Amino acid sequence: MRSIRRVYNPLLNWALDNRRRLIAGAAVLFVGSLLIATRLGTEFLPIMDEGAFDMDISMLPGVSLTKAVETSKAVAVRLKRFPELETVVSRTGLTGIALEAAGSTRQASSASSSRNQNG
Question: Is the pLDDT of residue 46 over 60?
């Protein structure tokens, strides 16, 4: 603890004696970081335009399988209104990665585009 205080106390005294310099330095670093951030681009979040999307639907607990299939068909009809969509596939009871059964209360729909969005 003493070795920490030997370093901390002089730094604290310097900061208290040089408040304006310290605040100006912090402001310069902050503005510099903002300038650098504008140049980062989007390499951390690449554009994922694969011409397909997934959608999960949650229904009220206790929904019947008949109602779940009916809802699935209604979702497919609505999605097919978009002329870009060629294929719509729905799964009731399994969503996303099928690690566990979810019953009729969960449904996943996938749709794919008829044209390539990348080129």
Answer: yes
Cα separation, 19 vs 22, in Å, equals 5
For 47-54, the CB contacts below 8 A with 24+ separation are: 49/117, 49/118, 50/117, 51/112, 51/113, 51/115, 51/116, 51/117, 51/118, 52/110, 52/111, 52/112, 52/113, 53/110, 53/111, 54/96, 54/108, 54/109, 54/110
The pLDDT of residue 115 is: 57
Buried b / exposed e along 22-53 (16+ C-beta atoms within 10 A):
eeeeeeeeeeeeeeeeeeeeeeeeeeeeeeee
End-to-end CA distance of the chain: 63
